């Protein structure tokens, strides 16, 4: 079936009211939808009004329970294509033929916040992909960080109860900066590697389009002849990996809580389709034990330098949803939705997930038939003897709903593995029944150290500040002290810097803590005997500094202007930005239109009241004496530039425009066009050729942010 047909099949029950008559849910044409039925114009409303009752009843039941985690989400449709057959490692049909396009539906989310919370919360992002393959649905339900907080599913409810708003007053919303979370973390050292990730800028992405995705667990690939290997999945964004900084995130949450949702929606609407390459790290079965960590431990990653990521295909998101509720809210992912050729490992975190996802849908989607909701339907045919239940859509024909049978000709029939039947990998398993973990699980520190050591200086600085912010919000001194003790075991200067910001001392002589999740009479000593492996070399792949983008596609640039602006300069800039795939927006002291210096008019996109610098990646101040004089008189304009500068964004100014950047305290040489800037990311010329300046400006925007500015300022302070 062609992809287009398949995609249309996914929207099988769409309803379009264009040109249609208003009806009740029974199809009855409605005469009056404005007035309820009354006994007299001013009389009581009658119980008889079945039209009113139907409408209100339906309204009363519009909400379904939000997801217990990952409630806040946004999704889009797209396609996936493999680059070349992966038959050597897996029999999965959608990974065989580079000509085949597999439809996908991808939902991104935050974890802790409610459905209406802000997109820019400091949090892990869910990255869940449903592949509608010819062999049934395959769900790769991952995150934007390659590890997880805990090692065993039995701790998940504790983790989530700790991070969610505190139960007595339901505060704070979508934030980990509170006592219960850090209490749990300080007593659960296995969280530390993930804590490093969540405190890094990875937890506040610039765009969902600019973040990596990870399957987290080790899964298995299995070939047609039954050979298996371990596999870790990665998504690599073609726009590079970029984040905002925390002060910006805080402001964006107020300015536009839908920032990521809007960004994804607009990009797809504008035809700037986000793309990711699917990467795999493959480990042969016989190499399972050759690593210093356990492949079954979801708090550890395999450094890319140890096992390279092979990019095997590309996913493109190319269509927004038609209806948020029907698609994004009702989509049901499940780590256990696999296809032949993809199988599980014994990761104890994954095992719990294999139970949880169907179970949660029973409450959320109201019964066992959620697979019949259009967004969840497989595109491949579905036949079995499961019947009835809440909201059953399918009308199963015939008298046979059991197997084996003769009355139905033995159908539906089991499928041999050679014909595509799912055959579980024949892993040999033996051992006593115990509530324990493998030895290597108990090294909770080495990879946390490796992660911190792999970051660029500015990334480390942001991580320190994040910890200062989070622990600064913790009221219990004992929790803060325990956390500093743990950080001390990761990196002494890190602990000291955090403590400095908190105005407390790093506690001395703290023993490396026991893992409280290990029974006291059990194997707690194993944890103590695990030495931190400080010799793990840094993994450059973990630093966002080494995940750059190319060019400035989809970047948003503010052009600050007022009446009297030099329109020719604005047009040159706008054309160049458009050609580079970026978006420019005119920001002015008021809405409506601008009168330019040459008498022409220009449409204003935003007034200083309705936007702010945090909504942009860079800004430019063109010349025009009157325009700049007006802007200089507006504190909002000066603040706009000042703020963007201290969020380390690219600042451009030409001719009189330099007056505004100077007034905003932007340090620069304000050169004559020789490109001799003293501050990285400031491209400000009082004279010279605008076209050259625009080229320099675009190059500077392509660097995302100018962290040298931050590090220089820190060195001065
Ligand atoms: Fe989930 N997780 N999870 N999770 N998870 C859910 O399923 C759960 C875990 C992830 O956009 C729930 O349908 C348990 C790791 C994503 O709809 C629930 C454990 C990873 C999404 C659930 C984990 C994830 C969920 C809530 C520990 C990254 C959103 C609603 C054993 C690899 C999917 C739902 C979407 C959603 C359970 C841990 C990713 C309750 C028990 C690790 C992206 O079933």
Uncertain spans, ≥5 residues at pLDDT below 50?
A: 516-530
- Estimate the strand proportion: 15-25%
Indicate the multimeric state: single chain
What integer is the average pLDDT?
93
**Alpha-beta content class:** alpha/beta
Q: How many strand segments?
A: 18
Q: What coarse outline follows from CA principal-axis ratios?
A: globular
Give every kind of bound small molecule, once each. CIS-heme D hydroxychlorin gamma-spirolactone 17R, 18S
Largest sheet: 10 strands, antiparallel
Q: How many distinct helices?
A: 20
Distance between the termini: 64 Å
**Helical percent range?**
25-40%
Structure description:
This protein is of the alpha/beta class. Helix content is 29%, strand content 15%. The protein has 20 helices and 18 strands. Strands 1, 2, 3, 4, 5, 6, 7, 8, 9 and 10 form a 10-stranded antiparallel sheet that branches. A 6-stranded parallel sheet has the order 15-12-11-16-17-18, sandwiched between helices. Strand 3 (125-133) and strand 4 form a beta hairpin. Residues 516-530 have low confidence and may be disordered. The site of CIS-heme D hydroxychlorin gamma-spirolactone 17R, 18S has 26 residues, from strand 2, strand 3, strand 4 and helix 9.
Supply database-style keywords.
717 residues; alpha/beta; 10-stranded antiparallel sheet; 6-stranded parallel sheet; binds CIS-heme D hydroxychlorin gamma-spirolactone 17R, 18S
In short:
By secondary structure, the protein is of the alpha/beta class. It is about 30% helix and about 15% strand.
């Amino acid at each position: 079936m062609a992809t287009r047909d398949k995609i249309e099949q996914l929207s099988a029950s769409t309803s379009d009211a264009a040109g249609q008559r208003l009806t009740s849910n029974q199809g009855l044409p409605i005469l009056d939808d404005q007035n309820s039925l009354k006994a007299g114009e001013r009389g009581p409303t009658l119980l008889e009004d079945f039209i009113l009752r139907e409408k209100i009843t339906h309204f009363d039941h519009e909400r379904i329970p939000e997801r217990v985690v990952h409630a806040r989400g946004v999704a889009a449709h797209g396609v996936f294509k493999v680059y070349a057959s992966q038959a050597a490692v897996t029999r999965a049909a959608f990974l065989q033929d580079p000509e085949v396009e597999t439809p996908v539906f991808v939902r991104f989310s935050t974890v802790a916040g409610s459905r209406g919370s802000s997109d820019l919360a400091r949090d892990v992002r869910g990255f869940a992909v449903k592949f509608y393959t010819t062999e049934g649905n395959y769900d790769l339900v991952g995150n934007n960080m390659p590890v997880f907080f805990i090692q065993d599913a039995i701790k998940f409810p504790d983790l989530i109860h700790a991070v969610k708003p505190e139960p007595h007053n339901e505060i704070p919303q979508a934030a980990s900066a509170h006592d219960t979370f850090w209490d749990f973390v300080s007593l659960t050292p296995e969280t530390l590697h993930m804590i490093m990730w969540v405190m890094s800028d990875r937890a506040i992405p610039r765009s969902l389009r600019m973040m990596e995705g990870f399957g987290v667990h080790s899964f298995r690939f299995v070939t047609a002849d039954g050979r298996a290997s371990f596999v870790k999945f990665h998504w690599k964004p073609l726009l590079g990996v970029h984040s905002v900084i925390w002060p910006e995130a805080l402001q964006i949450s107020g300015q536009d809580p839908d920032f990521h949702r809007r960004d994804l929606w607009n990009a797809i609407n504008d035809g700037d389709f986000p793309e990711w390459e699917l990467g795999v790290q493959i480990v042969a079965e016989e190499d399972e034990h050759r690593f210093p960590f356990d492949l079954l431990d979801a708090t550890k990653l395999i450094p890319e330098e140890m096992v390279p990521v092979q990019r095997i295909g590309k996913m493109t998101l190319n269509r927004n949803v038609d209806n948020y509720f029907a698609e994004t809210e009702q989509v049901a992912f499940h780590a256990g939705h696999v296809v032949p050729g993809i199988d599980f490992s014994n990761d104890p975190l994954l095992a719990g997930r294999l139970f949880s996802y169907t179970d949660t849908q029973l409450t959320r989607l109201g019964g066992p038939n959620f697979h019949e909701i259009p967004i969840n339907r497989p595109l491949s045919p579905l036949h079995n003897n499961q019947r009835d239940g809440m909201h059953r859509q399918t009308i199963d024909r015939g008298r046979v709903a059991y197997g084996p049978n003769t009355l139905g000709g033995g159908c539906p029939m089991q499928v041999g593995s050679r014909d595509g039947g799912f055959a579980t990998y024949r892993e040999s398993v033996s051992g006593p029944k115990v509530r324990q973990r493998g030895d290597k699980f108990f090294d909770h520190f080495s990879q946390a150290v490796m992660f911190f050591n792999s970051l660029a200086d500015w990334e480390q600085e942001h991580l320190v500040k994040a910890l200062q912010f989070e622990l600064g919000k913790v009221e219990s001194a004992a929790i803060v002290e325990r956390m500093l003790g743990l950080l001390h075991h990761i990196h002494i200067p890190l602990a000291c810097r955090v403590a400095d910001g908190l105005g407390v001392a790093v506690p001395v002589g703290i023993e490396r803590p026991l893992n409280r999740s290990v029974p006291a009479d059990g194997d707690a000593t194993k944890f103590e005997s695990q030495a931190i492996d400080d010799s793990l070399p840094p993994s450059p792949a973990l630093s966002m500094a080494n995940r750059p983008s190319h060019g400035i596609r989809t970047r948003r640039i503010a052009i600050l202007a007022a009446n009297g602006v030099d329109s020719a300069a604005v047009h040159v800039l706008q054309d160049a930005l458009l050609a580079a795939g970026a978006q420019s927006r005119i920001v002015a002291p008021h809405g409506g239109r601008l009168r330019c210096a040459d008498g022409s008019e220009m449409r204003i996109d935003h007034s200083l009241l309705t936007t702010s610098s945090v909504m942009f990646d860079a800004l430019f101040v063109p010349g025009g004496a009157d325009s700049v004089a007006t802007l200089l008189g507006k504190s909002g304009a000066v603040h706009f530039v000042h703020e963007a500068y201290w969020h380390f964004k690219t600042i451009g100014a030409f001719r009189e425009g330099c007056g505004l950047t100077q007034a905003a305290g932007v340090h620069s040489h304000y050169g004559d066009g020789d490109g001799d800037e003293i501050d990285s990311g400031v491209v400000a010329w009082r004279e010279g050729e605008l076209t050259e300046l625009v080229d320099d400006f675009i190059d500077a925007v392509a660097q995302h942010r100018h962290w040298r500015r931050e590090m220089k300022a820190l060195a001065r302070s």
